[in-house]
# Entry
Amino acid sequence: MAEWLTKSNYFAKISQYTCVYGIFFVILRADLCNYIIREMINDMESAIKTLYVVGNGFDMHHGIKSSYWNYMKWLEANYPELFKEIEQTFRGATEESWWADFENGLEKVDWFYNINNTTTKSEYQVGDVEIAGKKSSQRLLKLYDAIQVTFTQWVESLAPQIKAVKPDLDLDSAALYLNFNYTNTLQDAYQVPDENVLHIHGNALRGDKVIIGHKSNGDQFHIMQAELVDYTSDTIKMARAIGQFRKPTGKIIAEHQSFFDSLADVEQVTTCGFSFSSVDMPYVREIMKHIEDKVIWRVYVHSDRDRERMAIVQKDLNITMEFIDW
# Structure
């Protein structure tokens, strides 16, 4: 035992050092706690300032067969009669390009096929135009309903693929997410809380009614008038039927206005697999209304062609983009 530490003052020394080092560790511990709290607050503030916009390319990147082409193949295998009816009812539906732009394709109705396969010759006489128009529009509405039901079933069939996803992106689970997908890949694979994700068109895997449709604002009415000059009543009824499958972006935005209003502090927008398609552009413009012009849009791209297309979008919207390779 050291000379300065005799048996008589041993316990006194221990008490003294315990007191000194105890105070030191208390102070250190307090500083550490304050540091941790500050970091947590900073992380929370950082997350709120980031908005992710997620499109179908996000699911496809993770190996999920979620393209409209995949829906077509699934439909052909499971509902061949409905698949054939779609091909005959919509112009161009036999082409891959129609399915690539599936939602907008829903307004490209073959009027003559629809009328000829819905009404009899006698019903289509001048005195029975009302009957022809009613039956044609009813057929279209039933077809649209069948598409929505089977589309939902198809999305539900993707659940096993979603469970097999291995996350490979560095996403902030505490950030805000505007999700255009009908799936819950963000929640299941990346543990993003439901309250941080707005499924703007519904989540089929949570039992929501999904929203699919074209962007037409009524132009088809004038097209039909030109093609069916003698049958104005048919034109009106069929145009209204087609209007039932228009995506009501204005109404959807109004229903979720509080979400868009909450974006005022966003300093960065990151898009993952979002195509900036014309049918979804109203949402992009709504985002732009609530964030500052200086906000940088970080855009994931997977090819040179994709990069070139995004460069056009950047110019059209007059925003600043940074491209990130998948």
